[in-house]
Each structure stands twice: as structure tokens, then as C-alpha cells.
Amino acid sequence: xxxxxxxxxxxxxxxxxxxxxxxxxxxxxxxxxxxxxxxxxxxxxxxxxxxxxxxxxxxxxxxxxxxxxxxxxxxxxxxxxxxxxxxxxxxxxxxxxxxxxxxxxxxxxxxxxxxxxxxxxxxxxxxxxxxxxxxxxxxxxxxxxxxxxxxxxxxxxxxxxxxxxxxxxxxxxxxxxxxxxxxxxxxxxxxxxxxxxxxxxxxxxxxxxxxxxxxxxxxxxxxxxxxxxxxxxxxxxxxxxxxxxxxxxxxxxxxx
Length: 256
Description:
- It is built from 9 helices and 15 strands.
- By secondary structure, it is α/β, with parallel strands linked by helices.
- It has 2 domains: 6-43 and 178-255, Rossmann fold; 72-175, HAD superfamily/HAD-like (Rossmann fold, 3-Layer(aba) Sandwich), CATH 3.40.50.
- Helix 5 (123-134) crosses helix 6 (158-169).
- The radius of gyration is 18 Å and the shape is globular.
């Protein structure tokens, strides 16, 4: 397997909430020094790009704005390409700034945009969104992760609530984050490379590894995130390479 370019997940690969993965800074500095084409890709829907880049800078990782590719950005590109879309956002206020030029409304929206709102998911709000969808609104899922890892353990992610709305309404959400094939293809296109020339590094076997493989990318799985205790030999999803952490990336790149 030849590694020409990289897509790198953030949460679970570079950090877990506020804790930096040991060796992550050195690994990123290595690929920057070696001028290996790369993008950072994330399903995070609680922070906008400016906040994420600022957070990385605080721990010593400096990246250009154009090197960060997020699910809200992909969704915003799609919605602005439509004629007269009107959106209701069931999402964190931080990321709504990414949707400049998209009309917001609470009355008869054409699309309901759903991201992670943590404890903001409630019966009242879910029922409100359910009724918007039943009368015609389409579901835009910024991501469909099942759960995520925190310092307190695993927590339900937006995917669980989106699946509930799909079941109740009979509609299928359009997903813009990983594991959407379109998301990976857009990220590869930003590198100017076809998917077969790009390798995805992630901690989530479903969203990162299976999603990237289905989009035509090679994959590297790191055991520092939500699936760190998974026995790969028991899984149908198989990465091309598995590492204990991203700290092993420089040695891997030197071999490939």
C-alpha cells in the first residue's frame, strides 16, 4: 500500500475532548515538514471551523483554514446550490455561522438541518421537527454517528435521533458527514486527487474506516478513540493498517 495523501480525523485521533493524544503534535509536524498532501476531516457539529482551528493552535498544531473539511461546510455548499431552500436548524448555534446565505425559518421549512445538540435533544423538539418533516421538509443530517467518546465514557450521538426521525416519518436523511461517500469525495477533490490515491486515518470503524473504504480510499485505524477496544478479527470492517495511535504515523509513512 502506497500512501500519497491523507485525510485525518480529529476527535479520537488527535485529541479526545480536551486531552491531546500523545505524539499527535509530532505526527502532524512530520507530515507538514514532509509536505505530504493532507486535510483534516471531522463530523464535529458543535464547533465551527474558526473554533476548531483555534483549539488546535492552542495545543501547538497550526493548520490553514482550507485544510479543514467539515460536515456543516459540505451541507452548506449543497443548500446554497438549491433554489429557494428554507431551513430550520436543530443544531448547535456555533455551526450555524457556516451557513451564510442559507435562509432560516421556523415556518414551513423545505429542509430540517440536524446536528449534535447534546442534552438539547428532547421529546418536545423532536416532535416539533417530526411534524415539520411530515408536512414536507427534507432531513439534512450533518452527521449520523451512533455514539462518541468523552472523558465520562460513551454518549449517544446525533445518529440515534436521526434514525428515530427516519423511522417515524418514513423519510431517509441526506447525510453530509462521514460515512457519506460524497463527503469523502469532496475532501479528496479539495486535494486534487482521486480517492484511490488518498488514505483515511480514523478511530471510528463505521464512519471513518468503512465509509472511506466504500468511497475508494485506503484506511488506517488508530486505537485511541471510540472503537479502541474492538477486536478487529471479530469485525467485518477491516482497515488496511491498524496503529496503536497517530504517534506511529511517521514510522508508517517512512515504510510506505
